């Protein structure tokens, strides 16, 4: 964890709202890009990012830096909000609509990413989430286990199955 981030976390825990605001602001783009990859729908990712930030503010008193990195905690909240919303509204088909997929990865259009995205869209959420967390964000099995609320063995199994399905979809299988 960066020294500045650690300092902001400690100040926010001590009740400094400005430090919490700065911390959330510094991680906003990271959170948005994660949720964009997860939802595959820019406006939904933006809305979900806002909801996650609000939830982080409301529940910051529950954050324990000894249990998880701040970004892991944010991603866990965002992931859970997304899954809850999907269950509640049953909107999975809308997230997969090809016409809604016109966004940039990083700073440029990436044709290869669009091909991979098409393959990712074929995966069930239980496989897509661990694949994105592991291979795009480099999270450990333990962190993915915490975020997805499943045992580490389940994370490994889902990653293996998800990657196998991706390879088949991409013709590398």
TrEMBL record:
Tell me the organism: Jeotgalibacillus campisalis
Return the protein name: RNA polymerase sigma factor SigY
Q: Which UniProt keywords apply?
A: Sigma factor, Transcription, Transcription regulation
A GO BP entry is: DNA-templated transcription initiation
Tell me yes or no: is tRNA-binding among this UniProt entry's keywords.
no
Q: Report the InterPro entries cross-referenced here.
A: RNA_pol_sigma-70-like, RNA_pol_sigma-70_dom, RNA_pol_sigma70_r2, RNA_pol_sigma70_r4_t2, RNA_pol_sigma_r2, RNA_pol_sigma_r3/r4-like, WH-like_DNA-bd_sf
- Positions in coiled-coil regions: none
Name any one Pfam family assigned in the record.
Answer: Sigma70_r2
Homology family:
Belongs to the sigma-70 factor family. ECF subfamily.
UniProt keyword Membrane present:
no
User: RNA polymerase sigma factor 70 region 4 type domain: which residues?
Assistant: 115-166
List the GO molecular function terms.
DNA binding; sigma factor activity
From what superkingdom does this record's organism come? Answer: Bacteria
Domain RNA polymerase sigma-70 region: residue ranges? 24-91
């Amino acid at each position: 964890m960066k020294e500045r981030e650690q300092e902001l976390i400690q100040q926010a825990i001590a009740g400094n709202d400005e430090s919490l605001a700065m911390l959330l602001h510094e991680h906003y783009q990271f959170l948005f890009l994660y949720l964009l990859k997860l939802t595959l729908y820019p406006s939904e990712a933006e809305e979900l990012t806002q909801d996650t930030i609000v939830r982080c503010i409301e529940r910051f008193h529950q954050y324990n830096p000894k249990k998880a990195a701040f970004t892991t905690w944010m991603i866990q909240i965002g992931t859970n909000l997304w899954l809850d919303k999907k269950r509640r509204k049953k909107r999975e088909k809308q997230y997969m609509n090809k016409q809604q997929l016109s966004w940039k990865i990083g700073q440029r259009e990436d044709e290869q990413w669009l091909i991979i995205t098409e393959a990712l869209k074929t995966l069930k959420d239980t496989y897509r989430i661990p694949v994105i967390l592991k291979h795009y964000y480099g999270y450990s099995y333990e962190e993915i286990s915490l975020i997805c609320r499943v045992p580490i063995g389940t994370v490994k199994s889902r990653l293996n199955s998800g990657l196998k399905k991706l390879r088949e979809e991409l013709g590398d299988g």
